[in-house]
Amino acid sequence: MKMKQFWRSRLGRGLAAGSVVLGLAAGFAGAARAAGEDKVPQTPIYDTSADGKKQVAAALVEAKAGHKRVLIQFGANWCIWCHRLHTLFQSDAAVAAELKQDYVLVLVDVDRSHNQGLVDKYQAQKLGLPSLVVLDEAGKHLKTQETGALEEGKDHHSPAKVLAFLREFAPKH
């Protein structure tokens, strides 16, 4: 009888200690999310009802008129890295200027296999999100790029790497 009480006592203390550790871990994770480190912005950047083929076709018309490239960003509204890259496109002056001068940007939603035909066509299915595709003004596929190679650290894309990528495929004026 004493042995059962001993193990119940030990088990109870172990569970209590485990609960404390789990509670602390959850608290730290919650604090990080509250600080905005892992929080996906609530403003959607992808039109979940848009036909990606039509988006790309319209971008090609604009690219041809302006002698630009088309940059397709495949992603989803729940994807924090998609939001981070989109934010960099807008907030970094050099990246924003390069995009404005040489590219027509198209954000194509691929959540739940939406626009799967385009993903397959440009071989972006195994790259993760976001992934980038560069087309010339005639629609010729120049590059499909997984964006992990453009990251720096654990929470952002490198402006220098993104800018180098954009300049590598920019049209020669």
Number of helices: 6
The strands making up the biggest β-sheet line up spatially as: 2-1-3-4
The profile of the biggest β sheet is: 4 strands, mixed
CATH C-level category of the largest domain? Alpha Beta
Strand coverage percent: 15-25%
CATH superfamily of the largest domain: Glutaredoxin
| Unreliable segments of 5+ consecutive residues | 6-36
CATH architecture title of the largest domain:
3-Layer(aba) Sandwich
Into which percent range does the helicity of residues fall? Answer: 40-55%
What is the end-to-end distance?
Answer: 88 Å
Radius of gyration: 23 Å
Order of helices and strands: HHEHHEHEEEEH
> Structural class of the secondary structure composition?
alpha+beta
Q: Tell the overall outline.
A: globular
Q: What's the total number of strands?
A: 6
Query: Would you tell me the overall average pLDDT?
Result: 84
Total domains: 2
**CATH level-3 fold name of the largest domain:** Glutaredoxin
Topology of helices and strands:
Layout: H1 2-34, H2 52-66, E1 69-75, H3 80-91, H4 93-102, E2 103-109, H5 116-121, E3 131-135, E4 141-146, E5 151-152, E6 156-157, H6 159-169
Parallel strand pairs: 1-2
Antiparallel strand pairs: 1-3, 3-4, 5-6
Helix pairs in contact: 3-4, 4-6
Question: Any descriptors?
Answer:
single chain, about 170 residues, alpha+beta, Glutaredoxin, 4-stranded mixed beta sheet
Can you give me a brief rundown of this structure?
The chain has helices at residues 2-34, 52-66, 80-91, 93-102, 116-121, 159-169, and strands spanning 69-75, 103-109, 131-135, 141-146, 151-152, 156-157. It is of the alpha+beta class and 173 residues long. Strand 5 and strand 6 (156-157) form a beta hairpin.
